[in-house]
Each structure stands twice: as structure tokens, then as C-alpha cells.
Design brief:
Elements: H1 5-20, H2 25-32, H3 36-48, E1 53-54, E2 60-61
Antiparallel strand pairs: 1-2
Length: 79
């Protein structure tokens, strides 16, 4: 499996939430044509990372119009 695939799926999820607005995890999974359990797990992780939020009714949403990512990449190996 491509090691970056989960990251792409999470970015896709955030984009879908920006377009749809607050929704249930089940509806989000249907929109994305993904398994509910995987979407639920991704939502939980993104909530932990404060990239998305869950309201008092249990609906998930993406409150930010822009996310800036700052990450340290591993050192390159000598050729």
C-alpha cells in the first residue's frame, strides 16, 4: 500500500466537509464512498489534531478555510 494513501484520504475528507458543511460520519462515508469504520477513525484522528470538529449534535465539520502544515521531513540518505 502507498504509505501516503491515508494522508490523501484525510485531505479528501476535510475537503468534502468544507463542501458539504456539518454532517454525520455515516453521510460523509456515503459521500466519499468509503467504509464507515475507516471514515470514523479518520474523523477521530482529525478531531485529535484539531483539523475538524464535532458539534453538540454529533455532526462533524471543517471550520477552517485554510490549513497550513509544517512538518519535519526525515534526513536524506547518502547516495
Amino acid at each position: 500500500m502507498n504509505r501516503w494513501k491515508p494522508a490523501f484520504k484525510r485531505w479528501e475528507l476535510i475537503g468534502a466537509l468544507r463542501e458539504s458543511g456539518a454532517t454525520t460520519v455515516a453521510e460523509l462515508a456515503r459521500q466519499l464512498k468509503r467504509d464507515y469504520k475507516n471514515v470514523h477513525n479518520d474523523c477521530e484522528r482529525l478531531i485529535e489534531w484539531m483539523a475538524i470538529e464535532k458539534d453538540e449534535n454529533g455532526l462533524v465539520f471543517a471550520p477552517y478555510s485554510e490549513i497550513v502544515v509544517d512538518m519535519k521531513l526525515p534526513d536524506s540518505r547518502a547516495a
